[in-house]
Amino acid sequence: MTERVVIVAGETSGDNLAAGLIRALRVQRPGLEFEGVAGPAMIAEGCVAWAPSEALAVMGLFEVIPHLARMIRLRRDVVRRALAYAPRVFIGVDAPSFNLGLAAQLHTVGIATVQYVSPQVWAWRQGRVRTMAKTLDLVLCLLPFEKPFYEGRGLTAEFVGHPLADRLPLVPDRAAARLALGLPAHGEVVAILPGSRRGEVARLAQDFIAAAQILAARRPGIRFVAPMASSGVRVLFEAALAQAGGIAIDVIDGRSSQALTAADCVLVASGTATLETLLCKRAMVVAYRVGGPTAWIVRRLMRAPFFSHPNLLAGREVVPELMQAAVTPTALADALTRWLDDPALRCETEALFTTLHAQLQQGANERAAEAVLALLDRARR
Fold first, then answer.
1. What is the model's pTM?
2. Given 3.30.70.3270, 3.90.1170.30, 3.30.530.20, 3.40.50.2000, which CATH number is that of 4-161+362-380?
3. How many CA atoms within 13 Å lie on the side-chain side of 279?
């Protein structure tokens, strides 16, 4: 009998994670069929798309309000389609604001439910764990400290590692990356990653570009490369770049790992890109900015001392984090300057990042697939 899976992924990072999981599941159980909210990577693996992953790329508590009616309609449509499709399991990939509510609805009709990528409940709104325990059968964790957090809270969790850690080499080749991007073999290079969501880029692009202008004035000959996560964010970033004027930044489509590997240090928006930067062993300055009301609530509910992957994984401040009003061109440029002026500290940081990379290199796609198939087999019995 054909086994069906509904899988819903949010934005580019979720699309890539879900595609790797689909591929690994099909290797272990070729007869599985997949439908859901999918991006191009998932579609390439044979997932039938009910809606695009980009439809879930909304960040912030209050920032979602203009999109709320659309998101409610989308969730209602996904529930309707899922009930008609009759899957054995639902897998929500990231996008917890959308997927946890969806899981709750599908769980009530006996569909097994999985959340791939733990919501940051260990950082804020820890009360959500009680609801998750009632509506999720399994959480697949990317970070090693997440599984112990769930232990004793009535929720089955498995640490699977991170697929990016499996894909990227432990020892990056800066020379090869620079050659591939047409950058000089010598001289300073800074990578700029202003975010994968349009809202992030709209809030950060001007300050990131202005920081590059300050650095260019301080350090003649410095080069900048900015990999864009999608055509939509490229349009926004290039509009900000044209408005700023007087600064040369090589804007490229995708190829973020090459750009990070080519760089001496990185200016990056908080999110998955900070993990990718760590895995490319590059010193970074991390910026985070959301709408004022969201920031007010986050500050009061936040339980974790850090918000970037390097600091969370290391358990201490390894890279500077700038949030909200602290994100200014001068502050960003000063923090980057400190990295550029201290090659010994960069070398020490790269060694730490290599250790952290090894901890995350677990064969994530295969481990996640094994955990999902074990759940499917239990549900069948």
1. 0.81
2. 3.40.50.2000
3. 22
